[in-house]
Amino acid sequence: MQLYLDSAKLDEIKKLSSLGLIHGVTTNPSLIKIAAESMPDKPDLESYIKELQKAFYGPLSVEVISTDRQSMYREAMLIKEKFGMHNNNVVVKIPICTAKEMDDKNWDSGLEIIKSLSLHNIPVNTTLVLSPSQALLAANAGAKYVSPFAGRLDDYLVKAYFPGTKRSKSDYFPREGMTASNSKDVGTAIQRVIHGLPNYVNDDGTVSGVHLVGRIVTVLKNSNLDCKVLAASLRNPRQVVEMAEVGADIATVDYNTIVAMAMHQVSCDGIRRFAQDTIEEYRKLFTASSQQP
Ligand code: E4P
Predict the structure, then answer these.
(1) Ligand 1 atom at minimum distance from 125 CA
(2) 3-class DSSP state of 217
(3) How many angstroms separate the CA atoms of 165 and 208, rounded?
(4) Which of 8, 49, 112, 150 is deepest in the core (most CB within 10 A)?
(5) Residue to substitute in 96, 147, 149 for testing ligand 1 pocket (most ligand atoms within 8 angstroms of CB)
(6) What residues does each domain of the chain span?
(7) Residue 36 has what pLDDT?
């Protein structure tokens, strides 16, 4: 499974690219906002995004901002025009579902744009995918990538089935779903059992973000559709590894989670122990040479 960086911060992209860790970068309007707010002056975003593209090899996803078909198409073409020249690596991010409410008639604009862009050979990363059925539609319309939002699905499931449960953003959510027995907030879980509500979280059969990604991997493979599964909205190292276990092609991960992936208490203990155990004769082996890395 390849790793992408989920960030619009130049320093993070440069750092992880220099370590050879990332094979692509994903952005969205929220990530651009975070990056812009960390700068001393208001940025010229066109030049800034071009600078991001020069800092790594691989695709950069840039998202449209409108939800009506004409504007989305215009924005997608502008993204292609402004950023498509550098290594030809820009990918246009289009939301799968453009409806703002469940009874909104505008459910299909995203799919229409995915189809049009794909016919023009413009790669599309379909964003805000929360179900296997949405992924199937996007892949049929011609999307090159689907981005299932694993963490946001977990948040939604907790809110829907175990309201009031206290979790922080990076808390692990069980891939088999949350039950009365593994809920952190047992009180709330027991309340659900007492009131005859389902003990097992189930939303169109999907019980967790990891389960969502695994189902999408299977569905697209069984359908012989040429569309990569780009697991997104990830919260912790365990979830990232589980994405590889269920067969995601790519995981897009934020900087802090990548740092956390490198860390382990026992590795740190080992480093200190090796330093303590280094005898003088062994140290001498390394003092004779003046070679630089
Ligand atoms: C990436 O493509 C997504 O936009 C991103 O992973 C969303 O993450 P969030 O749910 O943490 O905002």
Answers:
(1) 2
(2) helix
(3) 16
(4) 150
(5) 149
(6) 2-152+205-284
(7) 96
